[in-house]
Amino acid sequence: MPELRWGYGISQWNCPRREQQERALKVMSACGFRGVELRAGSGRWSPLGKADLIELNFGSVKKFKEFVESCGLQVASYYYDPLMPLEGEDSEFWRGAPARRSPLNPADHERTVAGARAFAKLLSELRGTCLVVPPVPPYWTQAALTDEQIKTAAECWNKVGQMTKQDYNITTVLHVDCLSALRSLKDLGKMMEYTDPKFVGLAIDTAELTIAGINPVDVYDKFHDRAKHFHFKDTRNVDELGEYKKPFADFHLLDEGGEKHVERWFWEMGTAGGLVDFPALVKSMKRNNYDGWIIAESDPSPNPAQSAMLNAWYVKCVLAKA
Amino acid sequence: MSNIKWAYMDHWMMESPRGLVEPNVSRQYMDQYMKQIVALGFEGLDTFVFRLLGRYSQMFGSPKGFQHFLQDHGIGKIVSVFHAYPYATKDRAAHIRATHDDIFADCAGAMQACEGLGIDNFIIMPTSTYFQTEPVTDETIKIVADLWNRVGKMTLEHGIKTTSHHEFWCGIRSAEQIEKFYQYTDPQYVFYFCDAAQHTIAGVDPVEVYSKYHARCSGFHFKDTHTVDTKGEYRLPPDAELMAPSVKRWFWEIGTPEGLVDFPALMNAIKRFGYRGWISLEHDGPDRTGGNYAESTCIARWYIDNVLSKIYS
Asked: Most C-beta atoms within 10 A of its C-beta, which of A84, A196, B18, B20?
């Protein structure tokens, strides 16, 4: 049985300076994590957000790779939202509008493929494995998806996935979050049915799915052959009021806490009152010989290092025995 | 079997709805604190006598109850307890012979309370603040040595070594004072405890001191510093460690680029002299400059795993 490979998401650290990046990576390494997931971004506050910024900050992608390795880690994956405008590439950036790369719009598909290509190439140079993408926009931006829309999005990801796999040996994985317009196991099933298993996999985010009212263990049991990537984090709350439907749900629900004033949605594994059944999930993953990365996350939390240590404790002292 | 086991010296602060607090305000916070230490592979804890007999005994019923709590979390042992009289008072001052009976009685009480815990070291600060102890003459050092010889003989009867930890702001701090102290104390009863940062701040090379007293060395506090006290701030009242005019933070975690202690050289010396036992990681006060204990502990552990353990483990 393959050993589970554990990584950590860098997204909760605010680390524009090199020494801050080094400390963040060393924290992960000291905790026993061996991979890091980076997040696409642009501008001077995202020095690791894309290839040209990495080159600006480190001289070359190769030097950045060496820097990560000197801290005891390797880059596992990138999270990339094609709808997020990138400074220097999208004129939408200056208006705060989504980039013209919607998987729901066939006219945008080539732009989506081109956007993903840059990250697949970068990941390939960094020896990463997965490009993590949201499969569809948030629900509040366009309401429930029709079957036709899911098919259209699936076509887009088939093109992206074929490109990333064939040209760069990078797997494109679809990451459903708690605001996604894909709202149920049935929706997910359709997306899996319409996408090509050779090119498109699934990234299961335990807390995001739980907040959306979907049990991640059920998702894995149903689609374990498609699951190529995981985000492990916990939550104490479900969006029971359906506030994902409200305008600007990312702000009103996640940042502001919604009607129930939830001050913090995402927690470390093992938190009191955590809703995710991680031991059951890990048992199932071991049974199915899961061999991809598991990225622990806790963003945002008051103290990233403390969160990494508590997650590490849970991995070593609870999940290792699952 | 490894030669070195790593312990953690009990300083910690964590966020709470009430701001930064010590974890000993609640058992839930203690649980979180211990999980973080255990996650990084620490197997022992150094703590303070006042805390073990005070707050920890209140929280967990007794010193033994606290030990059970630690063991339930994977910390097998309290390795050392630290005891000091930072400010000299009329009835507690190591350089005043008339106070020795009271100090001895305190130490004897601590030993009785620690009975059966398997603690290795009773770490003492040999004197109070420098400004209260000076002038530090030969006679002063002899008086201090007499106290710790007496205490050391008593603690050994409880199976615990009395071991001296030389704060840069105490009365036994320079190479000459340290040499006289170990000359006047009995090697059977008084051991040496190497705190790398304290020596370095005092302008003393910890590798040299350790090499000289390795046969009497019973443990280490591995912490670093970015500053040598070249202005004589060690002797300034009211408190050289907390209120030095020019230095806000003396102590740093090991593994920072600005660190002054040559830990690889110290580790090589430890290897050369065949030390086998505990080394305690310490970084007293990262929150004083906006850092935090969790991050500092990870940075230090990274340095242990990737640099020091490759030299000797």
From this structure: A84
Across the strands, what pairs with B162?
A: B122, B190
Q: How far apart are CA B144 and CA B164, in angstroms?
A: 11
The pTM (predicted TM-score) of the whole model is 0.89
Instruction: Write out chain B's pLDDT in tens, 313 residues.
Output: 799 999 999 999 998 888 888 999 899 999 999 999 999 999 999 999 999 999 899 899 999 999 999 999 999 999 999 999 999 988 899 999 999 999 999 999 999 999 999 999 999 999 999 999 999 999 999 999 999 999 999 999 999 999 999 999 999 999 999 999 999 999 999 999 999 999 999 999 999 999 999 999 999 999 999 999 999 999 999 889 988 999 999 999 999 999 999 999 999 999 999 999 999 999 988 888 888 999 999 999 999 999 999 999 9
Cβ(A271)–Cβ(A306) under 8 Å? no
| Straight-line distance from the first to the last Cα atom of chain A, in angstroms, rounded to the nearest whole number | 14
**Per-residue tokens: A310:** 């508590």
Instruction: Please name the member of B28, B35, B305 whose beta carbon is closest to the beta carbon of A30.
Output: B305
The ipTM assigned to this model is 0.81
| Contact residues for A213 (Cβ-Cβ < 8 A; gap 6+) | A238, A239, A240
Q: Between chains, do A305 and B74 touch, taking CB under 8 Å as contact?
A: no
- The CATH number that applies at residue B242 is 3.20.20.150
Residue ranges making up the domain that contains A181: 5-321
Q: How many Cβ contacts (< 8 angstroms) between chains A and B?
A: 73
Q: How many helices (H) and strands (E) does chain B have?
A: 14, 12
CA distance readout (Å), A25 to A16, A66, A226, B305: 13, 13, 29, 14
* Whole-Å CA distances, B87 to B99, B124, B229: 13, 14, 20
B interface residues, A as partner, C-beta within 8 Å: 14-15, 28, 32, 35-36, 38-40, 74, 255, 257, 292, 294-295, 297-299, 301-302, 305-306
Q: Which two tokens stand for residue A198?
A: 């050779």
Supply the range of the domain harboring residue B213: 4-311
What tokens does A58 get?
């480190």
- How many domains does the structure of chain A reveal? 1
B190, B250 in Cβ contact below 8 A?
Answer: no
